[in-house]
Amino acid sequence: MSAEGDAPRASRAWEPLRILVVDDFAPFRESLCSFFQDYDTLTVVGVAVDGEAAVEMAFQLLPHIIVMDVKMPRISGIEATRRIKRFLPGVHIIGISTQDDTCIKESMKAVGSSHFVTKECAHTLPDVIARITGPPITKDPFVEGAT
Predict the structure, then answer these.
(1) What DSSP designation does 9 have?
(2) What is the pLDDT of residues 71-86, one digit of tens each?
(3) How many alpha carbons lie under 13 Å from residue 26 in its C-beta half-sphere?
(4) Between 139 and 99, the higher pLDDT residue
(5) Whose CA is closest to 84, among 106, 60, 100?
(6) For the whole model, what pTM was predicted?
(7) Which of 16, 60, 88, 109 is the most exposed place for a label (fewest CB within 10 A)?
């Protein structure tokens, strides 16, 4: 962690972006982790099943990106985002939900999320991450179908 409490900066030429995936629905969480494996510039460093675990893991793992479900048990994604951003202002948090609701989007933005996508549009996450972080997100050239 830097002196300002930011998430560590990736040296994109040498180190992939570190991602923490947070979702209480195991099939979605697992499919998202599997999806990210196809990208050589992304690596999933951890998974959390609720907001409380997300906060703990964010402080331990110092990811660059957190994909955060909004509605979860114990602590919501909104509250977890607020807590994480207070101490790790440099981490990018992307809110994700099955609901495309303006109130949810505004709540996530108000607590510091970088972006919001619906779970239906999860396939756009590499493009969203690229827009947030700068350099393009590339597929592993050894993955079938990669261009």
Answers:
(1) P
(2) 999 999 999 999 999 9
(3) 0
(4) 99
(5) 60
(6) 0.87
(7) 60
